[in-house]
Known about the structure:
By secondary structure, the chain is of the alpha/beta class. The chain contains 21 helices and 11 strands. The model is unreliable at 1-19 (pLDDT under 50).
Amino acid sequence: MRVWAMGAAVLLGIAPAAASAQATKPLSPEARTAAYLDRIAASPPRLRIFLQAMPKGGDLHNHGGGSIYAEDFLRWAGEAGLCIATDTDRIVDPPCDAPNRIPAAGLERNYPRYSRMIDAISTRGFESGVGDPRMSGYDRFFATFDAFGPASRGNAGRTFALTREQAAADHVGYVELSTGARAAMALVSQVGEGDADDFAGMLAKLEPLLPQAVAATRADYDAFERDAAMIDGCSGASPAPACGVEMRYLYTAIRTLAPRQVFAELALGFALAQADPRFVGVNIAAPEHDPIAVRDYALHMRMLAFLKARYPAVRLSLHAGELTLGLVPPRDLAFHIHDAVAVAGARRIGHGVDISYETDAPALLHRMAREKVAVEINLTSNAVILGVKGTAHPLSLYREAGVPVVLSTDDEGVSRSDMTNEYLRAVTEQGLRYRDLKQIVRNGIEYSFLPGASLWRDRVGGARVAACQVIAAPACTAFLAGSVRATQQLRLERELTAFEAIPR
Ligand SMILES: [Zn+2]
Protein backbone atom coordinates (compact mmCIF):
# COMPACT_ATOMS: atom_id res chain seq x y z
CA MET A 1 0.00 0.00 0.00
CA ARG A 2 2.68 2.41 1.06
CA VAL A 3 4.95 1.35 -1.82
CA TRP A 4 2.14 1.94 -4.29
CA ALA A 5 1.43 5.40 -2.84
CA MET A 6 5.10 6.34 -3.06
CA GLY A 7 5.31 5.05 -6.62
CA ALA A 8 2.18 6.96 -7.59
CA ALA A 9 3.57 10.14 -6.09
CA VAL A 10 6.75 9.79 -8.14
CA LEU A 11 4.76 9.05 -11.31
CA LEU A 12 2.64 12.13 -10.72
CA GLY A 13 5.73 14.22 -10.20
CA ILE A 14 4.89 14.97 -6.57
CA ALA A 15 7.91 15.13 -4.28
CA PRO A 16 7.45 12.40 -1.69
CA ALA A 17 7.50 13.46 1.97
CA ALA A 18 10.83 11.68 2.47
CA ALA A 19 12.57 14.05 0.05
CA SER A 20 11.61 17.12 2.05
CA ALA A 21 12.57 15.34 5.27
CA GLN A 22 16.05 14.78 3.86
CA ALA A 23 16.50 18.52 3.51
CA THR A 24 16.18 18.88 7.28
CA LYS A 25 18.71 17.36 9.69
CA PRO A 26 18.36 13.56 9.70
CA LEU A 27 17.29 11.99 12.97
CA SER A 28 20.01 10.37 15.05
CA PRO A 29 19.71 6.58 15.40
CA GLU A 30 18.60 7.13 18.99
CA ALA A 31 15.91 9.63 17.99
CA ARG A 32 14.73 7.35 15.19
CA THR A 33 14.49 4.42 17.62
CA ALA A 34 12.69 6.59 20.16
CA ALA A 35 10.23 7.75 17.51
CA TYR A 36 9.57 4.14 16.55
CA LEU A 37 8.77 3.19 20.14
CA ASP A 38 6.41 6.19 20.36
CA ARG A 39 4.57 4.86 17.32
CA ILE A 40 4.12 1.35 18.71
CA ALA A 41 3.65 2.21 22.41
CA ALA A 42 -0.04 1.30 22.36
CA SER A 43 0.59 -2.12 20.82
CA PRO A 44 1.90 -4.78 23.24
CA PRO A 45 2.68 -7.31 20.47
CA ARG A 46 4.82 -4.80 18.57
CA LEU A 47 6.41 -3.65 21.83
CA ARG A 48 7.22 -7.25 22.69
CA ILE A 49 9.18 -7.72 19.46
CA PHE A 50 11.00 -4.41 19.86
CA LEU A 51 11.78 -4.82 23.58
CA GLN A 52 12.84 -8.46 23.28
CA ALA A 53 15.65 -7.38 20.96
CA MET A 54 16.62 -4.33 23.01
CA PRO A 55 19.83 -4.81 25.03
CA LYS A 56 18.91 -4.62 28.73
CA GLY A 57 22.18 -4.37 30.62
CA GLY A 58 21.89 -6.02 34.03
CA ASP A 59 19.26 -7.87 36.04
CA LEU A 60 20.29 -6.90 39.56
CA HIS A 61 17.41 -8.52 41.44
CA ASN A 62 16.94 -12.14 40.45
CA HIS A 63 16.62 -15.03 42.89
CA GLY A 64 18.15 -18.38 41.96
CA GLY A 65 15.27 -20.83 42.45
CA GLY A 66 12.53 -18.23 41.96
CA SER A 67 13.92 -17.78 38.47
CA ILE A 68 12.91 -21.32 37.50
CA TYR A 69 9.57 -22.14 35.90
CA ALA A 70 7.33 -24.82 37.48
CA GLU A 71 7.59 -27.04 34.40
CA ASP A 72 11.35 -27.42 34.99
CA PHE A 73 10.95 -28.18 38.69
CA LEU A 74 8.38 -30.88 37.92
CA ARG A 75 10.69 -32.44 35.34
CA TRP A 76 13.63 -32.40 37.74
CA ALA A 77 11.42 -33.89 40.47
CA GLY A 78 10.46 -36.74 38.15
CA GLU A 79 14.07 -37.43 37.21
CA ALA A 80 15.12 -37.47 40.88
CA GLY A 81 12.39 -39.92 41.90
CA LEU A 82 10.59 -37.34 44.06
CA CYS A 83 6.87 -37.44 44.80
CA ILE A 84 3.83 -35.18 44.67
CA ALA A 85 1.87 -34.74 47.89
CA THR A 86 -1.69 -34.66 46.58
CA ASP A 87 -3.11 -33.28 49.82
CA THR A 88 -0.77 -30.26 50.05
CA ASP A 89 0.24 -29.87 46.37
CA ARG A 90 3.93 -29.98 47.20
CA ILE A 91 6.95 -31.77 45.79
CA VAL A 92 8.18 -34.08 48.57
CA ASP A 93 10.77 -36.78 49.21
CA PRO A 94 10.05 -40.50 48.64
CA PRO A 95 8.49 -42.95 49.33
CA CYS A 96 5.80 -42.20 46.75
CA ASP A 97 3.57 -45.18 47.60
CA ALA A 98 2.45 -43.67 50.92
CA PRO A 99 -1.10 -42.26 51.33
CA ASN A 100 -1.63 -39.02 49.38
CA ARG A 101 1.63 -39.50 47.48
CA ILE A 102 2.15 -40.12 43.76
CA PRO A 103 5.41 -40.20 41.78
CA ALA A 104 6.40 -36.93 40.12
CA ALA A 105 7.65 -38.98 37.15
CA GLY A 106 4.92 -39.22 34.54
CA LEU A 107 2.88 -36.40 36.07
CA GLU A 108 2.57 -34.76 32.65
CA ARG A 109 0.27 -37.61 31.63
CA ASN A 110 -2.18 -36.56 34.38
CA TYR A 111 -3.08 -33.11 33.09
CA PRO A 112 -5.45 -31.98 35.89
CA ARG A 113 -2.89 -32.87 38.55
CA TYR A 114 -0.02 -31.40 36.49
CA SER A 115 -1.89 -28.15 35.98
CA ARG A 116 -2.75 -27.99 39.66
CA MET A 117 0.94 -28.36 40.54
CA ILE A 118 1.93 -25.58 38.12
CA ASP A 119 -0.53 -23.37 39.97
CA ALA A 120 0.80 -24.50 43.35
CA ILE A 121 4.39 -23.59 42.53
CA SER A 122 3.74 -20.32 40.75
CA THR A 123 1.40 -17.34 40.77
CA ARG A 124 -0.10 -18.32 37.41
CA GLY A 125 -3.47 -16.71 36.95
CA PHE A 126 -3.25 -14.38 39.94
CA GLU A 127 -2.90 -11.20 37.94
CA SER A 128 -5.67 -12.05 35.55
CA GLY A 129 -7.97 -12.82 38.49
CA VAL A 130 -8.17 -16.57 37.95
CA GLY A 131 -5.76 -17.50 40.74
CA ASP A 132 -6.75 -19.56 43.73
CA PRO A 133 -9.54 -17.57 45.46
CA ARG A 134 -8.71 -19.17 48.81
CA MET A 135 -5.26 -17.62 48.87
CA SER A 136 -3.74 -14.14 48.53
CA GLY A 137 -1.05 -13.43 45.96
CA TYR A 138 1.54 -12.88 48.70
CA ASP A 139 0.73 -16.12 50.52
CA ARG A 140 0.76 -18.14 47.28
CA PHE A 141 3.97 -16.50 46.14
CA PHE A 142 5.93 -17.23 49.29
CA ALA A 143 4.40 -20.70 49.71
CA THR A 144 5.85 -21.77 46.34
CA PHE A 145 9.37 -21.90 47.76
CA ASP A 146 8.43 -24.70 50.15
CA ALA A 147 6.34 -26.40 47.48
CA PHE A 148 9.20 -26.71 44.97
CA GLY A 149 12.07 -26.85 47.53
CA PRO A 150 13.05 -30.53 47.20
CA ALA A 151 13.17 -30.24 43.39
CA SER A 152 15.71 -27.43 43.55
CA ARG A 153 18.05 -29.50 45.73
CA GLY A 154 21.18 -30.54 43.88
CA ASN A 155 20.19 -28.53 40.81
CA ALA A 156 22.17 -25.33 41.31
CA GLY A 157 24.12 -25.91 38.09
CA ARG A 158 20.90 -26.36 36.12
CA THR A 159 19.44 -23.31 37.85
CA PHE A 160 22.44 -21.19 36.86
CA ALA A 161 22.26 -22.47 33.28
CA LEU A 162 18.53 -21.84 32.88
CA THR A 163 18.78 -18.38 34.45
CA ARG A 164 21.55 -17.41 32.05
CA GLU A 165 19.67 -18.92 29.11
CA GLN A 166 16.64 -16.80 29.96
CA ALA A 167 18.83 -13.73 30.37
CA ALA A 168 20.37 -14.32 26.96
CA ALA A 169 16.90 -14.70 25.41
CA ASP A 170 15.99 -11.30 26.89
CA HIS A 171 19.30 -9.69 25.83
CA VAL A 172 20.35 -9.21 29.44
CA GLY A 173 24.16 -9.19 29.57
CA TYR A 174 24.70 -9.41 33.32
CA VAL A 175 22.87 -11.13 36.18
CA GLU A 176 23.47 -10.51 39.85
CA LEU A 177 21.89 -13.63 41.27
CA SER A 178 20.63 -13.84 44.87
CA THR A 179 21.77 -17.17 46.29
CA GLY A 180 22.58 -18.99 49.50
CA ALA A 181 25.03 -21.64 50.66
CA ARG A 182 24.78 -25.14 52.10
CA ALA A 183 27.55 -24.30 54.55
CA ALA A 184 25.25 -21.79 56.25
CA MET A 185 23.29 -24.66 57.80
CA ALA A 186 26.26 -25.76 59.93
CA LEU A 187 26.95 -22.20 61.05
CA VAL A 188 23.32 -21.64 61.92
CA SER A 189 23.31 -24.79 64.06
CA GLN A 190 26.54 -23.86 65.83
CA VAL A 191 25.84 -20.24 66.68
CA GLY A 192 23.92 -21.48 69.72
CA GLU A 193 21.56 -19.82 72.14
CA GLY A 194 22.11 -16.51 73.83
CA ASP A 195 21.80 -12.78 73.47
CA ALA A 196 21.02 -11.81 69.87
CA ASP A 197 22.32 -8.29 70.57
CA ASP A 198 25.79 -9.52 71.46
CA PHE A 199 27.15 -9.09 67.93
CA ALA A 200 30.81 -9.20 68.95
CA GLY A 201 30.23 -12.38 70.99
CA MET A 202 28.40 -14.08 68.10
CA LEU A 203 31.10 -13.12 65.63
CA ALA A 204 33.82 -14.40 67.98
CA LYS A 205 32.00 -17.72 68.13
CA LEU A 206 31.60 -17.90 64.34
CA GLU A 207 35.01 -16.62 63.27
CA PRO A 208 36.89 -19.91 63.73
CA LEU A 209 34.22 -21.63 61.60
CA LEU A 210 34.05 -19.13 58.77
CA PRO A 211 37.18 -20.13 56.78
CA GLN A 212 35.92 -23.69 56.39
CA ALA A 213 32.40 -22.50 55.45
CA VAL A 214 33.83 -20.06 52.91
CA ALA A 215 36.09 -22.73 51.39
CA ALA A 216 33.22 -25.24 51.16
CA THR A 217 30.94 -22.66 49.53
CA ARG A 218 33.58 -21.65 47.01
CA ALA A 219 34.08 -25.30 46.10
CA ASP A 220 30.30 -25.74 45.74
CA TYR A 221 30.09 -22.74 43.39
CA ASP A 222 33.06 -24.01 41.37
CA ALA A 223 31.04 -27.18 40.78
CA PHE A 224 27.77 -25.32 40.07
CA GLU A 225 29.50 -23.14 37.50
CA ARG A 226 31.19 -26.16 35.92
CA ASP A 227 27.81 -27.88 35.60
CA ALA A 228 26.20 -24.78 34.10
CA ALA A 229 29.05 -24.32 31.62
CA MET A 230 28.77 -27.96 30.59
CA ILE A 231 25.01 -27.72 30.04
CA ASP A 232 25.45 -24.74 27.73
CA GLY A 233 28.55 -26.12 26.01
CA CYS A 234 30.54 -23.06 27.03
CA SER A 235 33.95 -24.55 26.30
CA GLY A 236 32.85 -26.30 23.11
CA ALA A 237 32.87 -25.25 19.49
CA SER A 238 29.41 -23.68 19.53
CA PRO A 239 28.71 -22.26 22.99
CA ALA A 240 25.11 -21.26 23.74
CA PRO A 241 24.39 -17.51 23.94
CA ALA A 242 23.96 -18.06 27.71
CA CYS A 243 27.73 -18.46 27.99
CA GLY A 244 28.12 -14.78 27.15
CA VAL A 245 26.00 -13.69 30.12
CA GLU A 246 28.17 -12.52 33.00
CA MET A 247 26.88 -13.74 36.36
CA ARG A 248 27.83 -12.81 39.92
CA TYR A 249 26.20 -13.56 43.28
CA LEU A 250 24.60 -11.68 46.14
CA TYR A 251 24.75 -13.86 49.22
CA THR A 252 21.22 -13.61 50.61
CA ALA A 253 20.34 -14.26 54.26
CA ILE A 254 16.81 -15.29 55.25
CA ARG A 255 15.17 -12.75 57.54
CA THR A 256 12.57 -15.12 58.99
CA LEU A 257 15.11 -17.27 60.86
CA ALA A 258 15.84 -16.88 64.58
CA PRO A 259 17.94 -13.75 65.22
CA ARG A 260 21.23 -15.51 65.94
CA GLN A 261 20.75 -17.69 62.87
CA VAL A 262 20.25 -14.60 60.71
CA PHE A 263 23.47 -13.20 62.14
CA ALA A 264 25.32 -16.43 61.28
CA GLU A 265 24.07 -16.29 57.69
CA LEU A 266 25.02 -12.64 57.34
CA ALA A 267 28.48 -13.31 58.78
CA LEU A 268 29.02 -15.99 56.15
CA GLY A 269 27.83 -13.60 53.44
CA PHE A 270 30.29 -10.89 54.45
CA ALA A 271 33.17 -13.38 54.72
CA LEU A 272 32.33 -14.80 51.28
CA ALA A 273 32.09 -11.39 49.65
CA GLN A 274 35.46 -10.51 51.15
CA ALA A 275 37.10 -13.73 49.96
CA ASP A 276 35.66 -14.42 46.52
CA PRO A 277 35.07 -11.83 43.78
CA ARG A 278 32.14 -13.86 42.44
CA PHE A 279 30.21 -12.81 45.55
CA VAL A 280 29.77 -9.10 44.95
CA GLY A 281 27.57 -8.27 47.91
CA VAL A 282 25.16 -9.28 50.64
CA ASN A 283 21.35 -9.19 50.70
CA ILE A 284 18.54 -10.17 53.06
CA ALA A 285 15.23 -11.56 51.81
CA ALA A 286 12.04 -13.57 52.59
CA PRO A 287 8.61 -12.05 53.27
CA GLU A 288 9.10 -8.69 54.92
CA HIS A 289 5.59 -8.86 56.41
CA ASP A 290 6.30 -12.16 58.17
CA PRO A 291 5.84 -11.58 61.93
CA ILE A 292 9.45 -12.59 62.67
CA ALA A 293 10.77 -10.30 59.94
CA VAL A 294 8.65 -7.42 61.22
CA ARG A 295 9.71 -8.03 64.82
CA ASP A 296 13.43 -8.22 64.00
CA TYR A 297 13.73 -5.67 61.20
CA ALA A 298 15.58 -3.02 63.22
CA LEU A 299 17.77 -5.70 64.82
CA HIS A 300 18.78 -7.03 61.39
CA MET A 301 19.76 -3.53 60.26
CA ARG A 302 21.98 -3.17 63.32
CA MET A 303 23.54 -6.57 62.60
CA LEU A 304 24.29 -5.44 59.05
CA ALA A 305 25.77 -2.17 60.30
CA PHE A 306 28.01 -4.08 62.71
CA LEU A 307 29.29 -6.46 60.04
CA LYS A 308 29.67 -3.66 57.50
CA ALA A 309 31.99 -1.89 59.96
CA ARG A 310 34.07 -5.09 60.12
CA TYR A 311 34.03 -5.59 56.34
CA PRO A 312 33.76 -2.04 54.94
CA ALA A 313 34.37 -3.05 51.32
CA VAL A 314 31.36 -5.38 51.17
CA ARG A 315 28.35 -3.81 49.47
CA LEU A 316 24.73 -4.26 50.40
CA SER A 317 21.59 -4.52 48.33
CA LEU A 318 18.72 -4.99 50.77
CA HIS A 319 15.09 -5.95 50.27
CA ALA A 320 13.27 -3.10 51.98
CA GLY A 321 9.78 -1.70 51.68
CA GLU A 322 8.25 -4.71 49.89
CA LEU A 323 5.10 -3.77 51.77
CA THR A 324 1.96 -1.74 51.33
CA LEU A 325 -0.90 -0.34 53.39
CA GLY A 326 -2.97 -3.12 54.92
CA LEU A 327 -0.29 -5.81 54.77
CA VAL A 328 1.24 -4.62 58.07
CA PRO A 329 0.30 -1.86 60.54
CA PRO A 330 1.24 1.62 59.26
CA ARG A 331 4.04 1.91 61.83
CA ASP A 332 5.89 -0.87 60.01
CA LEU A 333 5.70 1.03 56.73
CA ALA A 334 7.44 4.07 58.20
CA PHE A 335 11.14 3.19 58.50
CA HIS A 336 12.33 0.09 56.61
CA ILE A 337 13.84 1.84 53.58
CA HIS A 338 15.27 4.59 55.78
CA ASP A 339 17.00 2.13 58.10
CA ALA A 340 18.32 0.02 55.23
CA VAL A 341 20.02 3.15 53.87
CA ALA A 342 20.86 5.09 57.03
CA VAL A 343 21.60 2.30 59.52
CA ALA A 344 22.80 -0.64 57.41
CA GLY A 345 24.40 1.40 54.63
CA ALA A 346 22.63 -0.22 51.67
CA ARG A 347 23.83 0.95 48.25
CA ARG A 348 20.71 -0.49 46.60
CA ILE A 349 17.16 -1.11 47.77
CA GLY A 350 15.13 -4.07 46.56
CA HIS A 351 11.51 -3.06 45.82
CA GLY A 352 11.09 0.12 47.93
CA VAL A 353 7.36 -0.01 47.20
CA ASP A 354 6.20 1.59 50.47
CA ILE A 355 8.39 4.71 50.09
CA SER A 356 5.41 7.06 50.29
CA TYR A 357 4.53 5.72 53.76
CA GLU A 358 8.01 6.43 55.17
CA THR A 359 8.41 9.10 57.82
CA ASP A 360 9.63 12.17 55.91
CA ALA A 361 9.61 10.41 52.54
CA PRO A 362 10.75 13.60 50.70
CA ALA A 363 13.93 13.79 52.79
CA LEU A 364 14.62 10.08 52.24
CA LEU A 365 14.09 10.41 48.48
CA HIS A 366 16.41 13.41 48.45
CA ARG A 367 19.08 11.47 50.32
CA MET A 368 18.80 8.46 48.01
CA ALA A 369 19.13 10.73 44.99
CA ARG A 370 22.11 12.57 46.48
CA GLU A 371 23.92 9.40 47.54
CA LYS A 372 22.89 7.52 44.38
CA VAL A 373 21.22 4.67 46.25
CA ALA A 374 19.51 2.79 43.44
CA VAL A 375 16.11 1.07 43.64
CA GLU A 376 15.48 -2.30 42.00
CA ILE A 377 11.95 -2.09 40.58
CA ASN A 378 10.07 -5.39 40.09
CA LEU A 379 6.79 -4.49 38.40
CA THR A 380 5.29 -7.94 37.92
CA SER A 381 6.31 -9.15 41.36
CA ASN A 382 4.85 -6.03 43.00
CA ALA A 383 1.60 -6.42 41.08
CA VAL A 384 1.23 -10.10 42.00
CA ILE A 385 2.43 -10.02 45.62
CA LEU A 386 1.33 -6.58 46.77
CA GLY A 387 -1.33 -5.65 44.21
CA VAL A 388 0.62 -2.43 43.57
CA LYS A 389 0.75 -1.45 39.89
CA GLY A 390 -0.02 1.33 37.41
CA THR A 391 -0.21 4.79 38.94
CA ALA A 392 -0.14 3.26 42.45
CA HIS A 393 3.44 2.15 41.86
CA PRO A 394 6.12 4.57 43.07
CA LEU A 395 8.41 4.20 40.03
CA SER A 396 7.57 7.68 38.74
CA LEU A 397 8.05 9.15 42.23
CA TYR A 398 11.57 7.74 42.41
CA ARG A 399 12.41 8.91 38.91
CA GLU A 400 11.10 12.41 39.52
CA ALA A 401 13.15 12.62 42.72
CA GLY A 402 16.28 11.70 40.77
CA VAL A 403 16.76 8.36 42.51
CA PRO A 404 18.47 5.91 40.13
CA VAL A 405 16.23 2.99 39.21
CA VAL A 406 16.73 -0.34 37.48
CA LEU A 407 14.17 -2.85 36.26
CA SER A 408 14.56 -6.43 37.44
CA THR A 409 12.73 -9.73 37.46
CA ASP A 410 12.75 -10.78 41.17
CA ASP A 411 11.38 -14.33 40.62
CA GLU A 412 10.60 -14.63 36.94
CA GLY A 413 9.79 -18.34 37.17
CA VAL A 414 7.38 -18.10 40.08
CA SER A 415 5.66 -14.98 38.71
CA ARG A 416 5.85 -16.37 35.16
CA SER A 417 7.30 -13.24 33.67
CA ASP A 418 10.63 -12.37 32.02
CA MET A 419 12.81 -9.28 31.70
CA THR A 420 11.25 -8.27 28.37
CA ASN A 421 7.85 -8.26 30.06
CA GLU A 422 9.17 -6.00 32.84
CA TYR A 423 10.22 -3.48 30.19
CA LEU A 424 6.90 -3.87 28.44
CA ARG A 425 5.07 -3.03 31.66
CA ALA A 426 7.32 -0.03 32.12
CA VAL A 427 6.00 1.29 28.79
CA THR A 428 2.35 0.27 28.96
CA GLU A 429 1.71 0.82 32.68
CA GLN A 430 4.31 3.40 33.64
CA GLY A 431 4.44 5.47 30.46
CA LEU A 432 8.21 5.19 30.00
CA ARG A 433 9.69 5.83 26.57
CA TYR A 434 12.86 4.82 24.77
CA ARG A 435 15.29 7.26 26.37
CA ASP A 436 13.91 6.40 29.83
CA LEU A 437 14.44 2.70 29.16
CA LYS A 438 17.93 3.32 27.79
CA GLN A 439 18.85 5.15 30.98
CA ILE A 440 17.53 2.23 33.04
CA VAL A 441 19.47 -0.25 30.90
CA ARG A 442 22.68 1.70 31.52
CA ASN A 443 21.87 1.94 35.24
CA GLY A 444 21.77 -1.86 35.33
CA ILE A 445 25.55 -1.94 34.90
CA GLU A 446 26.41 1.38 36.56
CA TYR A 447 24.69 0.39 39.82
CA SER A 448 25.72 -3.24 39.69
CA PHE A 449 28.29 -4.39 42.20
CA LEU A 450 30.72 -5.44 39.48
CA PRO A 451 34.23 -4.39 40.48
CA GLY A 452 36.07 -1.53 38.84
CA ALA A 453 35.58 2.11 37.91
CA SER A 454 32.75 3.33 35.72
CA LEU A 455 33.14 4.11 32.03
CA TRP A 456 31.21 7.32 32.66
CA ARG A 457 32.97 10.44 33.93
CA ASP A 458 30.17 11.96 36.00
CA ARG A 459 26.80 11.11 34.48
CA VAL A 460 25.58 7.72 33.25
CA GLY A 461 25.34 7.96 29.47
CA GLY A 462 27.23 11.29 29.44
CA ALA A 463 30.92 11.81 28.73
CA ARG A 464 33.29 8.87 29.08
CA VAL A 465 36.28 8.94 31.45
CA ALA A 466 39.40 10.68 30.09
CA ALA A 467 41.22 7.39 29.42
CA CYS A 468 38.44 6.24 27.08
CA GLN A 469 37.81 9.36 25.03
CA VAL A 470 39.22 7.21 22.24
CA ILE A 471 38.10 3.62 22.76
CA ALA A 472 40.95 2.14 20.70
CA ALA A 473 43.61 4.12 22.57
CA PRO A 474 46.10 2.15 24.71
CA ALA A 475 45.00 4.17 27.77
CA CYS A 476 41.45 2.91 27.34
CA THR A 477 42.59 -0.67 26.83
CA ALA A 478 44.49 -0.43 30.11
CA PHE A 479 41.51 1.16 31.85
CA LEU A 480 39.16 -1.57 30.64
CA ALA A 481 41.61 -4.28 31.70
CA GLY A 482 41.32 -2.94 35.24
CA SER A 483 37.52 -2.67 35.33
CA VAL A 484 35.01 -5.46 34.75
CA ARG A 485 32.27 -2.87 35.15
CA ALA A 486 33.60 -0.55 32.44
CA THR A 487 34.16 -3.56 30.15
CA GLN A 488 30.51 -4.52 30.54
CA GLN A 489 29.48 -0.91 30.01
CA LEU A 490 31.40 -0.67 26.76
CA ARG A 491 29.91 -3.96 25.59
CA LEU A 492 26.45 -2.57 26.34
CA GLU A 493 27.15 0.65 24.42
CA ARG A 494 28.14 -1.41 21.40
CA GLU A 495 24.97 -3.47 21.69
CA LEU A 496 22.85 -0.31 21.95
CA THR A 497 24.53 1.16 18.88
CA ALA A 498 23.80 -2.01 16.91
CA PHE A 499 20.20 -2.06 18.17
CA GLU A 500 19.60 1.55 17.15
CA ALA A 501 21.06 0.87 13.71
CA ILE A 502 18.30 -1.65 12.91
CA PRO A 503 16.12 -0.14 10.14
CA ARG A 504 12.62 0.59 11.41
ZN1 LIG B 1 13.41 -10.32 45.81
